[in-house]
Each structure stands twice: as structure tokens, then as C-alpha cells.
Design goal:
Blueprint lengths: L3 E5 L3 H13 L3 E5 L2 H11 L3 E5 L7 H11 L3 E6 L5 H5 L7 E4 L4 H29 L3 E4 L2 E4 L4 E4 L2 E3 L3 H12 L4 E3 H9 L8 H14 L9 E4 L3 E4 L2
Parallel strand pairs: 1-2, 1-3, 3-4, 4-5
Antiparallel strand pairs: 6-7, 7-8, 8-9, 10-12, 11-12
Helix pairs in contact: 2-3, 6-7, 6-8
Bound molecules: calcium ion (CA).
């Protein structure tokens, strides 16, 4: 099944060029020229990746990304026109998986698209494997349960709200229980090779996760810090 890409760009010439070139790579393409219809298209089309321009009519790409991030874990590759947008793009507010600054070459764009889709595929395979290995669809650690098929986490049988990246991080930690995982390794596997950020991103997400799954987040028992190393999930 070919992967699906939603292209959100209001400059028609660029939208056409992106659609043409990505179709040629074998992807199924949907296009959208403004922020509002982009939201609708993303919900209907359920893409594997969204190429999202920032300056858009009706609703800008920042807002589109913020809304979609709450609803789906689809990878987002943002197109920026100005260097001063980059901090916001990679920051926690938007949390794009990657970005390209205009003007960019089609070859560069295709390379980034492939990298993001490869990462998403690996993540899916890893999740699939853990489902198979467990031969049921949940991972349970005492009063903490991760439901893999529903992407839901329960604490004392009550669902807790996790952002897509928090969920992916928790699942990754849980799948590597009792292993010391360096920040760099976590960053590479959960955020991807091409993520433009640093290991503090991991620390921030660990802090958020602890607030949600630890009894006392200042004395964490589940996700412990390994001095000079990284983190270890105890269960
Ligand atoms: Ca634009």
C-alpha cells in the first residue's frame, strides 16, 4: 500500500511541483491551499505525512500543526520562508518532525520525506512486534497499562492524556524496560535521525511523562535518571 502525503501550500506553482514530484515517487497525494481545508483533508485522508507551509490563508501552518498534533501522530514536515520561524517550528509549541527553508531543492525535499516515512514505518513495525511478542494488545506495569491498539494509557484504570510524542516515548521506554537508554539514542529512535533539536527535548518530555505516570514526579520510580547516562524504565 503506497504511503499517503498531504501537501498544504497556497502557492499553486509550488503545490503543483510538490504534488508532481512526490507522485512520481509513488506516493498517493492530496493537496490543500489553506489552513482550514488542510485540517479537514488531514482528518479525511489520514495521511502518513503532511508537508505543511507556514504562511497560509485562513489559518497559518503553526495553528494547523498545533491542532493536528492533538489529534494524530502523523509526521509533519514544515516549509518555512524565514529563518526567524525555525525556533517556533521545532519548538515544543508546534513540534514539527522536520522542516525545510524556502527555497529548497526537490531532491532535498524528497530525501526528507523518505526519511520521515521510513522512521514512521520503523516505529509501526516496532509497535507491531511488541504486540506480537506479548500476544495480546496491552503492556502492563503494576497500575500502569499501555493499550497498543487503542494508543491509550491507563493509570489505576483511568485513561491519562498523552501527547503523541509522550506516548511514543513511553512506549519506547516500556519496550526497553530496565535498559539504560542514552538521551541521544532515545532522540534518534523516537524523534528520528533528522530531528533538528537536542537531547533537552528528551528531558522535557520525560518531565511531562513523569508528571502523568509517577506517584511523585520529583522522586520518580518508573522513569529513573541514570547519572551521566540517560534514562531507564523500571516498570
Ligand atoms: Ca505560503
Amino acid at each position: 500500500m503506497p504511503e499517503k502525503i498531504l501537501i498544504v501550500e497556497d502557492e499553486i506553482a509550488l503545490q503543483d511541483a510538490l504534488a508532481y514530484n512526490l507522485k512520481k515517487e509513488g506516493y498517493i497525494i492530496e493537496t490543500s491551499g489553506d489552513g482550514l481545508s488542510a485540517l479537514e483533508a488531514a482528518r479525511k485522508f489520514n495521511p502518513d505525512l503532511i508537508v505543511l507551509d507556514i504562511m497560509l490563508p485562513q489559518m497559518d501552518g503553526f495553528e494547523v500543526a498545533r491542532i493536528l498534533r492533538r489529534e494524530m501522530s502523523t509526521a509533519i514536515l514544515m516549509l518555512t520562508a524565514r529563518d526567524d520561524e525555525i525556533d517556533r517550528v521545532v519548538g515544543l509549541e508546534v513540534g514539527a518532525d522536520d522542516y525545510l527553508t524556502k527555497p529548497f531543492s526537490m531532491r532535498e525535499l524528497i530525501a526528507r520525506v523518505k526519511a520521515q516515512l521510513r522512521r514512521a514505518r520503523l516505529l509501526r513495525e516496532e509497535m507491531g512486534k511488541s504486540v506480537e511478542e506479548a500476544r495480546h494488545e496491552t503492556l502492563t506495569f503494576d497500575n500502569l497499562t499501555i493499550n497498543l491498539t487503542r494508543r491509550e494509557v491507563l493509570l489505576n484504570e483511568n485513561p491519562i492524556q498523552l501527547k503523541p510524542k509522550e506516548y511514543e516515548l513511553l512506549l519506547f521506554l516500556a519496550e526497553h524496560r530496565r535498559q539504560m537508554l542514552s538521551r541521544e539514542f532515545i532522540l534518534e529512535r523516537v524523534w528520528g535521525w533528522d530531528f533538528i533539536g537536542d537531547s533537552r527535548t528528551v528531558d522535557v518530555h520525560v518531565r511531562w511523562l513523569r508528571q502523568k505516570i509517577e506517584e511523585n514526579s520529583s522522586e520518580p520510580k518508573r522513569i529513573v535518571t541514570v547519572r551521566g547516562g540517560g534514562y531507564r524504565f523500571e516498570g
